[in-house]
Design goal:
47% of the residues lie in helices and 8% in strands. With 217 residues, the protein is α/β, with parallel strands linked by helices. The two termini are 17 Å apart.
Length: 217
Amino acid sequence: MTELEIWLRYFLIWPGLQPIGNPAEADVIIIQAFGRNSIPDSELYSIGQLRELSNNDWLTINKLGQGPINFDPGEPNVSLALECQDLVDQYHLPVITQWEVAAAFGPRWHKRHRESIFCVWPPTEPQIRFSTREVISLTAEVMAKHGWEKPIILAHKRHIARVYLIAKKLLAMLPTVVAQKTKGFDSQSVQIWTRNWFFWFMYEILGRGYHLLKKWV
């Protein structure tokens, strides 16, 4: 895709992106989650604190599916997790993923690949935001630590244009994009803007304009 085509899709909001780059040349997969069906944004810090206490991604993900938490990642994140599993099985790459998607991995598959899956967790303080840009910024730190420089980006089809442009700026590189299979919404999401196409469209009109003003894309 040309730069003009990418920006056109950014402004149109609805279209996704055509594939960009060669996934066979990538050295890591990075994933941006889309909504979740439990744990509202105001309580995300408790998940960050849980991870801090366990000091282990794999153990924390297991705790999320048990007892009183019984976390529900929602259909879009289940779909993203399946996309990721297929890419890992095909290209044998490590993964940096937002925690909601990690919670949606098949348990046996996740256990088998747990040493090469790195989760991005919310802050432990309630007043700190955990937006798309913050997630990508934390992802960049993990990439730098491991020397990874050629990411494949996985994101919801209606989200990918903004994710791509934020990542391109923050990572100072051209990420690879594969065909987006995840495009549905979940009416049970705790984030109202990910419940249906109308709420998402309204949210993105404001969000994408704000990102331009802040020069985040």
